[in-house]
Write a structure and sequence with these properties.
alpha/beta; GIY-YIG endonuclease; Rossmann fold; 5 domains; seven-stranded parallel beta sheet; 21 helices; binds adenosine-5'-diphosphate; binds zinc ion
Length: 742
């Protein structure tokens, strides 16, 4: 027998199958998906995966050495192959996502394993021991205490036993030696949901709107029908309640469910709603869990003990069986697309998995992705609209402030007159305020006013940001830090000026404006530890801190009943970027931030400060009107031939040597032009907007086309041709409809 093996490597020339003989003693054992070790090259041994088994081969020369483990199914292998073709990477890059957390580590001893612990059991009959205590055979009081604890517990963790019996390891070991008790190793579960005592709740009675959605999708679950569904409804319109009851329908039919949420929305509140409804059949997977915790959650899913998986993007690869539904909440969120190899879209893969399993896919959002909404309007996706807030709370009132006018009347601060008076009023009424600014740090760039020199990162071609708290200049791309400048390194002038604004500067300004007021700041710089994001929000809520200042992070998760004012300091900051999705992003984020104000009885207020009061995404966000935004945006996309009317392909050519990068870019452009047969509109290679990041030079080629099967073939063929017989060490990274165009 012969096995086709994919070598575990991201080297471009190893992305193919190699044939190996299966030795007779492994023939009964070997299966597709096995992780194996094989001899490779001169005296080398490499790890690989079995992707196919066949009778014979003319290429095989060597035997498989051994089988390491067996985590992958046929389905996994097929999915990995499909992904490698579609996302232009190695099959083994994709397989890694499907292995238990930590198991792709190069070093076997550091791979995640089940955690073993000593458990203690009685080894003799209770009556027998009791009579030995009575007749004085056992008289050590410590030993008696240990035995008494064991009378109450069939099985107990050794540390718990020692603590409960107030005894020592020596005492326990002594009893083991005499044969009264037994100590055995057992795997223990590290459970991130443990210590959570959540009061159970029950299903709510649906509104008519909710009922309609539920009826349609639950029918598809029951009949094993694949369907794509968009639940479009503002925050608070009852989407989550529908998800909960659809999942319940799955459980009742012996099926399971995956629900994806943006990493940042995986808050305890969110998870608690699922625990309250379903208890311990819920598993969670996200990157903030420790490796061991993730491993154990994965194991529980694989063993079928967990029926509901809530997780971030990569949870789509968990080994859940009998799947009945996949739900993607906040489907417009950019975190569903991976920004590292493989650059997959969890939404596209979910669609594929649902189709393969004949189950419904549910997407939910208050501000759907323009492409999703286009598909919904054109009938490819079932559209369900929730028009009312389920708990009848009202939408906030929004006002736009023109910052150009502020400047004209001499207000140079970041806070307009109107926002200042609203904050004052809020403080007086003991209500809370959130101030949102999309930029962290103190100043966004530093320039010499004599000669125009700007301080840039030495690894990246990008300006450094000043952080006043640490008194440092930092690069937000690579983390490089340096001391702030006193004199210009070029002309020695002392006229160094700090330009721009950031969250840190905003906090300082607020403190000098309102010295009595308590503030808390939330951005990457204050959020570092495991739960810190959570801690900051908890503190803001619990301690009733007057003002929360933050970036994007403040947008999601928590619900703050006492927040009645939201100030958006500079609505324009995401507009200027070179990206076809800039307006969409601006609209989404402004709508979400605005939605933070007043979800209870009191209607909240939103102040949007901007230099572009006439911009349509800002205007639509003020109105909280997605339909109005969509109608304008889709026209624009159609005119400019942007997605969904066309796809944008970004080829990033990256390497250590600038000349080689340029050469490879030009070579690839030539090959692609020849192969594309005018199916793609190609733009000439140019240095990327940020031409160097982390000491790697970057060029790019942009293309517009319909991303079809034939285009995928053209790109794969061109990549192969470009890499063949080349000693150029730069690489080409292909990104389809990238989140980030730089
Ligand atoms: P979304 O997910 O769209 O933000 P939720 O499902 O969280 O909305 O619902 C918002 C609030 O309304 C929650 O407090 C929820 O318990 C409540 N709610 C949802 N559906 C109903 C219903 N049918 N009847 C009463 N309250 C509901
Ligand atoms: Zn200078
Ligand atoms: Zn840098």
């Amino acid at each position: 027998m012969v096995a086709e093996i994919i070598i575990n490597s991201n080297a471009k020339d190893l992305n193919k199958q190699f044939d190996y003989f299966v030795p007779a003693e492994l023939e009964n054992q070997i299966k597709i998906g096995n992780r194996v070790f094989v001899p490779f090259g001169k005296n080398g041994v490499k790890e690989g995966y079995v992707v196919c088994l066949k009778e014979k081969s003319t290429f095989a020369t060597k035997n498989i050495l051994r089988i390491e483990d067996n985590f992958l199914s046929d389905f996994n292998i097929n999915l990995a192959k499909l992904m490698a073709r579609r996302y232009f990477c190695n099959v083994s890059d994709c397989i890694k996502l499907m292995l238990p957390p930590g198991s792709s580590s190069k070093n076997i001893s550091s791979r995640a394993k089940a955690k073993m612990a000593d458990f203690v059991y009685l080894n003799k009959n209770k009556n027998e021991i009791n009579s030995e205590i009575e007749n004085g055979t056992i008289k050590n009081p410590k030993q008696i205490r240990v035995l008494n604890v064991l009378f109450q517990n069939d099985e107990i963790y050794i540390l718990d036993l020692e603590r409960l019996a107030d005894s020592t390891r020596a005492t326990v070991k002594g009893l083991e030696k005499k044969g009264y008790i037994e100590i055995r190793q057992k795997a223990i579960e590290r459970n991130p949901l443990i210590n959570k005592e959540v009061k159970r709740d029950t299903a709510l009675k649906f509104t008519d709107e909710q009922q309609k959605v539920y009826d349609s999708i639950s029918k598809d679950i029951e009949n094993n029908v694949h369907s794509q569904n968009l639940i479009y409804g503002i925050t608070g319109s009852g989407k989550t309640e529908i998800y909960l009851q659809l999942i319940d329908a799955c459980l009742k039919q012996g099926k399971t469910a995956i629900m994806l949420v943006p990493e940042i929305s995986l808050t305890p509140q969110m998870i608690n709603r699922f625990l309250a409804r379903f208890g311990d059949v819920v598993a969670v997977l996200h990157s903030k869990l420790m490796l061991g915790e993730r491993y154990d959650q994965w194991q529980k899913i694989s063993e079928g003990k967990s029926k509901i998986l809530i997780g971030a993007r990569s949870a789509i690869f968990a080994p859940i069986k009998d799947l009945g539904i996949i739900i993607i909440d906040e489907e417009h969120d950019s975190s569903y697309k991976s920004e590292s190899t493989p650059r997959y879209s969890a939404k596209d893969l979910a669609k594929y998995i649902c189709a393969q399993n004949n189950i419904p896919l549910v997407l939910g959002s208050a501000t759907p992705d323009v492409k999703t909404f286009y598909d919904a309007k054109s009938g490819k996706i079932n559209l369900f609209t929730l028009t009312k807030r389920a708990n009848e709370s009202s939408l906030p009132k929004a006002t736009i402030v023109d910052l150009r006018k502020e400047l004209a009347i001499g207000n140079k601060s970041m806070i307009s007159g109107l926002l200042k008076s609203k904050i004052e009023e809020n403080i007086k009424n003991k209500k809370q305020t959130i101030l949102f600014l999309n930029r962290r740090g103190y100043s966004s760039f530093i320039m010499c006013r004599e000669c125009g020199f700007t301080a840039k990162c030495k690894n990246c071609n990008i300006s450094l940001t000043y952080h006043i708290g640490e008194n440092k200049l930092k690069c937000h791309y690579c983390g490089f830090e340096t001391k702030p400048l006193k004199t210009c390194p070029v002309c020695k002038s002392e006229k160094i000026k700090y330009f721009g604004i950031g969250t840190e500067k905003l906090e300082n300004e607020i403190k000098s404006m309102f010295p009595e007021v308590a503030t808390i700041r939330m951005d990457i710089d204050t959020v570092t530890k495991k739960n810190s994001h959570e801690e900051i929000l908890e503190k803001f809520k619990k301690d009733n801190i007057d003002i929360l200042i933050g970036t994007q992070m403040v947008v999601k998760g928590h619900h703050f009943p006492n927040v009645t004012l939201v100030g958006i300091i500079a609505a324009d900051s995401s507009l200027g970027i070179e990206d076809y999705r800039a307006s969409e992003r601006t609209f989404q984020i402004l709508t979400q931030v605005a939605g933070r104000a007043g979800r209870e009885e009191t209607a909240g207020e939103v102040i949007i400060q901007t230099y572009n009061p006439d911009n349509f995404s800002i205007e639509c966000a003020k109105e909280q009107n997605y339909d109005m935004f969509y109608d304008a945006e889709i026209m624009l996309r159609k005119t400019l031939k942007y997605p969904p009317f066309c796809d944008i392909l970004l080829f990033n050519i990256i390497g250590n040597n600038e000349v080689e990068v340029k050469k490879l870019a030009e070579k690839f452009y030539r090959i692609l032009t020849r192969n594309s047969l005018e199916k793609m509109l190609l733009l000439k290679p140019l240095p990327s907007p940020i031409s160097k990041i982390k000491n790697k030079y970057r060029w790019r080629i942009l293309a517009k086309c319909k991303f079809s099967n034939s285009v995928i073939d053209i790109i794969n063929k061109s990549l192969k041709e470009c890499y063949a017989n080349s000693n150029n060490k730069s690489s080409i990274i292909v990104d389809v409809n990238p989140n980030n165009m730089i």
